[in-house]
Amino acid sequence: MDILPIKAFKDNYIWAIIFHKTKQVIIVDPGDATAVLKTIEQMGLQLIAIFITHHHFDHTGGVSQLCKIFPDVKVYGPKLAKISEITHSVTENDSFEINSCIFNVKETPGHTLDHIVFYTQNMLQYPVLFCGDTFFSCGCGRIFEGTATTMVASLEKILTLPKATRIYPAHEYTLANIKFSLLVEPQNRLLQQYFIKTVASTDKNLPTLPVTLANELEVNPFLRCLNNELDLSTIPTNLNLSNKTAVFSFIRKWKDNF
Ligand SMILES: [Zn+2]
Protein backbone atom coordinates (compact mmCIF):
# COMPACT_ATOMS: atom_id res chain seq x y z
CA MET A 1 0.00 0.00 0.00
CA ASP A 2 1.25 3.42 -0.97
CA ILE A 3 -0.02 6.97 -0.96
CA LEU A 4 1.33 8.78 -4.00
CA PRO A 5 0.90 12.37 -5.16
CA ILE A 6 -0.42 13.07 -8.65
CA LYS A 7 0.50 16.61 -9.63
CA ALA A 8 -2.19 18.76 -11.21
CA PHE A 9 -2.59 22.39 -12.21
CA LYS A 10 0.05 24.72 -10.76
CA ASP A 11 0.50 23.27 -7.28
CA ASN A 12 -2.28 20.75 -6.53
CA TYR A 13 -1.65 17.25 -5.27
CA ILE A 14 -4.29 14.64 -6.01
CA TRP A 15 -3.50 11.85 -3.54
CA ALA A 16 -3.75 8.25 -4.78
CA ILE A 17 -4.16 5.51 -2.16
CA ILE A 18 -2.88 2.43 -3.95
CA PHE A 19 -3.66 -1.14 -2.86
CA HIS A 20 -0.91 -3.04 -4.65
CA LYS A 21 -2.23 -6.56 -3.97
CA THR A 22 -5.61 -5.91 -5.56
CA LYS A 23 -4.41 -3.24 -8.00
CA GLN A 24 -7.10 -0.90 -6.72
CA VAL A 25 -6.91 2.80 -6.03
CA ILE A 26 -8.78 5.49 -4.08
CA ILE A 27 -8.35 9.02 -5.39
CA VAL A 28 -8.63 12.08 -3.16
CA ASP A 29 -9.87 15.34 -4.73
CA PRO A 30 -9.49 14.61 -8.45
CA GLY A 31 -9.49 18.12 -9.86
CA ASP A 32 -8.07 16.90 -13.16
CA ALA A 33 -9.21 13.57 -14.67
CA THR A 34 -6.42 13.46 -17.27
CA ALA A 35 -3.66 13.43 -14.67
CA VAL A 36 -5.46 10.72 -12.68
CA LEU A 37 -6.16 8.53 -15.73
CA LYS A 38 -2.51 8.69 -16.75
CA THR A 39 -1.44 7.24 -13.39
CA ILE A 40 -4.25 4.67 -13.38
CA GLU A 41 -3.30 3.45 -16.87
CA GLN A 42 0.44 3.42 -16.24
CA MET A 43 0.02 1.36 -13.06
CA GLY A 44 -2.85 -0.81 -14.33
CA LEU A 45 -5.19 0.19 -11.49
CA GLN A 46 -8.92 0.01 -10.94
CA LEU A 47 -10.55 3.10 -9.44
CA ILE A 48 -12.79 1.94 -6.57
CA ALA A 49 -13.49 5.17 -4.68
CA ILE A 50 -13.18 8.94 -4.82
CA PHE A 51 -13.00 11.15 -1.74
CA ILE A 52 -14.07 14.79 -2.10
CA THR A 53 -13.10 17.25 0.64
CA HIS A 54 -14.96 20.31 -0.67
CA HIS A 55 -16.66 21.70 -3.74
CA HIS A 56 -13.87 23.83 -5.25
CA PHE A 57 -13.27 23.04 -8.92
CA ASP A 58 -9.58 22.21 -8.49
CA HIS A 59 -10.72 19.35 -6.21
CA THR A 60 -13.75 18.14 -8.17
CA GLY A 61 -13.19 19.03 -11.84
CA GLY A 62 -12.29 15.45 -12.82
CA VAL A 63 -15.05 13.64 -10.91
CA SER A 64 -17.68 13.41 -13.65
CA GLN A 65 -15.26 12.10 -16.29
CA LEU A 66 -13.84 9.50 -13.88
CA CYS A 67 -17.38 8.36 -12.98
CA LYS A 68 -18.18 7.88 -16.67
CA ILE A 69 -15.09 5.71 -17.17
CA PHE A 70 -15.55 3.83 -13.84
CA PRO A 71 -19.36 3.69 -13.41
CA ASP A 72 -19.14 1.53 -10.24
CA VAL A 73 -16.87 3.94 -8.36
CA LYS A 74 -18.09 5.03 -4.92
CA VAL A 75 -17.90 8.78 -4.43
CA TYR A 76 -17.66 9.97 -0.81
CA GLY A 77 -18.25 13.68 -0.34
CA PRO A 78 -19.72 16.30 1.99
CA LYS A 79 -23.42 16.20 2.73
CA LEU A 80 -23.49 19.98 2.23
CA ALA A 81 -21.93 19.85 -1.24
CA LYS A 82 -24.19 19.94 -4.28
CA ILE A 83 -22.24 17.47 -6.41
CA SER A 84 -24.48 15.06 -8.30
CA GLU A 85 -21.81 12.34 -8.60
CA ILE A 86 -21.60 11.83 -4.81
CA THR A 87 -22.96 8.35 -4.03
CA HIS A 88 -22.10 8.43 -0.30
CA SER A 89 -22.82 11.76 1.45
CA VAL A 90 -20.86 11.87 4.68
CA THR A 91 -20.85 14.10 7.71
CA GLU A 92 -19.22 14.52 11.17
CA ASN A 93 -18.15 11.23 12.76
CA ASP A 94 -19.35 9.03 9.90
CA SER A 95 -17.17 5.98 9.38
CA PHE A 96 -16.95 3.63 6.42
CA GLU A 97 -14.70 0.77 5.39
CA ILE A 98 -12.83 0.14 2.15
CA ASN A 99 -10.51 -2.88 1.82
CA SER A 100 -10.48 -3.24 5.65
CA CYS A 101 -9.38 0.40 6.09
CA ILE A 102 -11.74 2.35 8.30
CA PHE A 103 -12.09 6.00 7.36
CA ASN A 104 -13.56 8.54 9.75
CA VAL A 105 -15.04 11.86 8.58
CA LYS A 106 -14.70 15.20 10.36
CA GLU A 107 -16.40 18.41 9.31
CA THR A 108 -13.90 21.27 9.06
CA PRO A 109 -15.75 24.39 7.85
CA GLY A 110 -13.79 27.60 7.34
CA HIS A 111 -12.14 27.46 3.91
CA THR A 112 -15.61 26.44 2.63
CA LEU A 113 -18.70 25.61 4.64
CA ASP A 114 -18.92 22.09 3.19
CA HIS A 115 -15.30 21.14 3.92
CA ILE A 116 -14.64 17.68 5.39
CA VAL A 117 -11.47 15.67 6.06
CA PHE A 118 -10.85 11.93 5.94
CA TYR A 119 -8.91 10.21 8.74
CA THR A 120 -7.78 6.61 9.12
CA GLN A 121 -5.87 4.93 11.92
CA ASN A 122 -5.64 1.41 10.62
CA MET A 123 -4.48 1.77 7.01
CA LEU A 124 -0.75 2.14 7.69
CA GLN A 125 1.49 1.91 10.78
CA TYR A 126 0.62 5.54 11.55
CA PRO A 127 -2.62 7.55 11.38
CA VAL A 128 -3.30 9.36 8.11
CA LEU A 129 -5.32 12.52 7.45
CA PHE A 130 -6.45 13.82 4.06
CA CYS A 131 -7.20 17.44 4.88
CA GLY A 132 -7.91 19.08 1.50
CA ASP A 133 -7.56 22.85 1.87
CA THR A 134 -8.24 23.06 5.62
CA PHE A 135 -4.60 22.73 6.55
CA PHE A 136 -1.18 23.13 4.90
CA SER A 137 2.31 22.70 6.19
CA CYS A 138 3.05 25.95 8.06
CA GLY A 139 -0.35 27.24 6.99
CA CYS A 140 -4.08 26.78 6.91
CA GLY A 141 -6.79 27.32 4.33
CA ARG A 142 -7.81 30.80 3.34
CA ILE A 143 -11.19 31.57 4.89
CA PHE A 144 -13.62 31.99 1.99
CA GLU A 145 -16.96 30.92 3.43
CA GLY A 146 -16.57 30.46 7.19
CA THR A 147 -15.26 32.75 9.91
CA ALA A 148 -12.10 32.73 12.00
CA THR A 149 -14.14 31.09 14.75
CA THR A 150 -15.29 28.21 12.54
CA MET A 151 -11.77 27.73 11.19
CA VAL A 152 -10.32 27.68 14.71
CA ALA A 153 -12.84 25.00 15.73
CA SER A 154 -11.89 22.97 12.65
CA LEU A 155 -8.15 23.23 13.31
CA GLU A 156 -8.73 22.29 16.94
CA LYS A 157 -10.16 18.98 15.71
CA ILE A 158 -6.85 18.36 13.91
CA LEU A 159 -4.98 19.28 17.10
CA THR A 160 -6.69 16.40 18.94
CA LEU A 161 -5.20 13.80 16.58
CA PRO A 162 -2.11 11.75 17.54
CA LYS A 163 1.17 13.58 16.95
CA ALA A 164 2.35 10.80 14.65
CA THR A 165 -0.50 11.51 12.22
CA ARG A 166 0.75 12.10 8.69
CA ILE A 167 -1.16 14.91 7.04
CA TYR A 168 -1.74 15.07 3.29
CA PRO A 169 -2.78 18.59 2.18
CA ALA A 170 -3.92 19.26 -1.39
CA HIS A 171 -1.41 21.96 -2.33
CA GLU A 172 2.36 22.39 -2.41
CA TYR A 173 2.46 25.66 -0.49
CA THR A 174 5.12 24.71 2.06
CA LEU A 175 8.02 26.96 1.05
CA ALA A 176 5.89 30.12 0.69
CA ASN A 177 4.18 29.29 3.99
CA ILE A 178 7.51 28.89 5.78
CA LYS A 179 8.67 32.28 4.45
CA PHE A 180 5.56 33.81 5.98
CA SER A 181 5.91 31.83 9.22
CA LEU A 182 9.45 33.17 9.61
CA LEU A 183 8.00 36.70 9.69
CA VAL A 184 5.68 35.64 12.50
CA GLU A 185 8.32 33.70 14.47
CA PRO A 186 11.78 34.76 13.27
CA GLN A 187 13.46 33.22 16.33
CA ASN A 188 11.93 29.74 15.93
CA ARG A 189 14.97 27.48 15.44
CA LEU A 190 13.03 24.46 14.24
CA LEU A 191 11.29 26.67 11.69
CA GLN A 192 14.66 27.96 10.47
CA GLN A 193 15.85 24.35 10.06
CA TYR A 194 12.60 23.40 8.32
CA PHE A 195 13.17 26.26 5.86
CA ILE A 196 16.62 24.92 4.91
CA LYS A 197 15.28 21.37 4.50
CA THR A 198 12.32 22.57 2.42
CA VAL A 199 14.48 24.69 0.11
CA ALA A 200 16.54 21.56 -0.60
CA SER A 201 13.44 19.46 -1.43
CA THR A 202 11.87 22.21 -3.50
CA ASP A 203 15.10 22.74 -5.48
CA LYS A 204 14.94 19.06 -6.42
CA ASN A 205 11.24 19.40 -7.31
CA LEU A 206 10.36 16.86 -4.60
CA PRO A 207 7.04 17.03 -2.72
CA THR A 208 7.41 18.44 0.79
CA LEU A 209 4.33 16.47 1.88
CA PRO A 210 3.05 14.61 3.83
CA VAL A 211 4.01 16.19 7.14
CA THR A 212 3.51 14.94 10.68
CA LEU A 213 1.35 16.75 13.17
CA ALA A 214 4.39 16.65 15.50
CA ASN A 215 6.35 18.73 12.97
CA GLU A 216 3.53 21.23 12.54
CA LEU A 217 3.16 21.75 16.29
CA GLU A 218 6.73 23.10 16.23
CA VAL A 219 6.56 25.26 13.11
CA ASN A 220 3.00 26.13 12.05
CA PRO A 221 1.98 29.56 13.49
CA PHE A 222 -1.73 28.86 12.96
CA LEU A 223 -1.55 25.77 15.19
CA ARG A 224 0.95 27.25 17.61
CA CYS A 225 -1.28 30.21 18.43
CA LEU A 226 -4.15 27.81 19.19
CA ASN A 227 -1.83 25.74 21.39
CA ASN A 228 -0.62 28.88 23.22
CA GLU A 229 2.92 28.12 22.08
CA LEU A 230 3.39 30.94 19.60
CA ASP A 231 6.04 33.59 20.32
CA LEU A 232 3.75 36.63 20.38
CA SER A 233 6.50 39.26 20.08
CA THR A 234 5.52 40.13 16.49
CA ILE A 235 1.79 40.33 17.27
CA PRO A 236 0.50 43.87 17.98
CA THR A 237 -0.09 44.38 21.67
CA ASN A 238 -3.36 46.23 21.05
CA LEU A 239 -4.85 42.81 20.27
CA ASN A 240 -6.16 40.81 23.20
CA LEU A 241 -3.25 38.37 23.19
CA SER A 242 -5.03 35.97 25.51
CA ASN A 243 -7.82 35.58 22.93
CA LYS A 244 -6.42 32.92 20.59
CA THR A 245 -9.13 33.44 17.96
CA ALA A 246 -8.16 37.12 17.79
CA VAL A 247 -4.48 36.19 17.39
CA PHE A 248 -5.36 33.53 14.81
CA SER A 249 -7.51 36.00 12.90
CA PHE A 250 -4.71 38.58 12.90
CA ILE A 251 -2.20 36.05 11.51
CA ARG A 252 -4.69 34.82 8.91
CA LYS A 253 -5.31 38.37 7.64
CA TRP A 254 -1.55 39.08 7.70
CA LYS A 255 -1.03 35.98 5.53
CA ASP A 256 -3.86 36.98 3.16
CA ASN A 257 -1.91 40.15 2.39
CA PHE A 258 1.56 38.50 2.33
ZN1 LIG B 1 -10.33 25.02 -1.96
Structural commentary:
With 258 residues, the protein is an alpha/beta fold. It has one domain (2-256): 4-Layer Sandwich (Metallo-beta-lactamase, Chain A), CATH 3.60.15.10. The chain is built from nine helices and 14 strands. Helix 5 (174-184) packs antiparallel against helix 6. It starts with a strand and ends with a helix. Bound molecules: zinc ion. Residues 54, 56, 111, 133 line the site of zinc ion (ZN).
List keywords for this structure.
single chain, Metallo-beta-lactamase, Chain A, binds zinc ion, alpha/beta, six-stranded mixed beta sheet, 14 strands, 258 residues, 25% strand
In short:
The protein is α/β, with parallel strands linked by helices. 33% of the residues lie in helices and 25% in strands.
Task: Describe the SSE topology.
Elements: E1 2-8, E2 12-19, E3 24-28, H1 33-43, E4 46-51, H2 57-60, H3 63-69, E5 74-78, E6 88-90, E7 95-98, E8 101-107, E9 116-120, E10 128-132, E11 135-136, E12 139-140, H4 148-159, E13 166-169, H5 174-184, H6 189-203, E14 211-212, H7 213-219, H8 221-226, H9 244-256
Parallel strand pairs: 3-4, 4-5, 5-6, 10-13
Antiparallel strand pairs: 1-2, 2-3, 7-8, 8-9, 9-10, 11-12, 13-14
The protein binds zinc ion.
Zinc ion binds at residues 54, 56, 111, 133.
